[in-house]
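Researcher: Structure for this, please.
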Amino acid sequence: MSGIVVIGAGQAGASLVAKLRSEGYDGAVTLIGEEPVPPYQRPPLSKKYLLGEMDLERLFLRPESFYADNAITLRTGCRVESIDTANRTMTTSTGNLTYDQLALTTGSIPRRLPASIGGTLDGVHVVRSLSDVDGLAADVTPGARVLIVGGGYIGLEAAAVASKLGLSVMLVEMADRILQRVAAPETSDYFRDLHRQHGVDLREGVGLDRLLGDTRVTGARLTDGTELPVDLVIVGVGITPDTALAEAAGLTLDNGIWVNAQGRTSDPHVWSAGDCASFPWQDSRIRLESVQNAIDQAELVARNMLGGGQDYDPKVWFWSDQYDVKLQIAGLNTGYDRVVIRTGARAGVASHWYFAGDRLLAVDAMNDPRAYMVGKRLIDAGKTVDPAAVADPATDLKALLG
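Model: Predicted structure, token format:
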């Protein structure tokens, strides 16, 4: 049995195999995942699941029976050890496999703190997998002192959940401001104020020097010399594409697994999609870390594996939930030279519009779904819009679509 094999049972892998079947492919399909559970949603892990508002089965992307019902061989708890692209075979922890076509949807892995500064002490957590969050939950008790390292969206979401769970929260960001890599100062200001209103001790321009403790973390020394007692640590300093298998197999890498516009790697029989894949877009090469990209790119790759011949043109959007604020982001703000602030009629409602000259690049919408919807449609259509009209609260945003 050869057929199509997909390595990586996350959002992209699950979307890809489902699309193969819905497109009418009737050959063998195998989905391989290292974790011992069926594919599941990651965003709710550190929010509703950790808060006890969502149980394990509700995390699953599809009922476990879906795979058998659709003749998809799901191999959970299976580690792929090597890929031989010349012979189209692979070695796994549960036996060898052959393939006609292969898709790598291996996703990403969280960056961890080095062991030399205490990163392997008990009580130091990352938030990426089900086992990560189960381990974190065992350390979460009201009143515990948690240090969050990193002021990107991962760290800020962790801070919001920890605060809601009754922990004493400190967050440190070594850059000059939170969200410095991904958002304008105006958006940083909004979320800094939000977290401080909820009691988070948020410190910018200061990093972690090292964690203290023998076998378990008991404290932290910051780069400004401050030492503080700590009961647990959450590390939110970003993720990296999981390219180890691809690299060992001799595939081309470029900030992830290199693919062409159709999702094919440097080997004609191997494809890739999701967090791990970098692809050409608007005269550059990018890699998107989002649920929607994982779904859209994986479904396109599934069609192309069956001869679709389509190029990938993503409609870029992201979201983040922090406290009672839903941040919705449309577009990519790379290259902006101006930010227009639009304030909503209610407290906490705002949107930040990124322009390069007169060209709208992106919108950050905080509790403002209309601004997000209008901004996304304008960006997707490549339409120009008058920044002054955006800033004017009297402007009916929907009128801008005309």
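Researcher: Any notable elements?
Model: The chain has a mean pLDDT of 95. The two ends are 55 Å apart (CA to CA).
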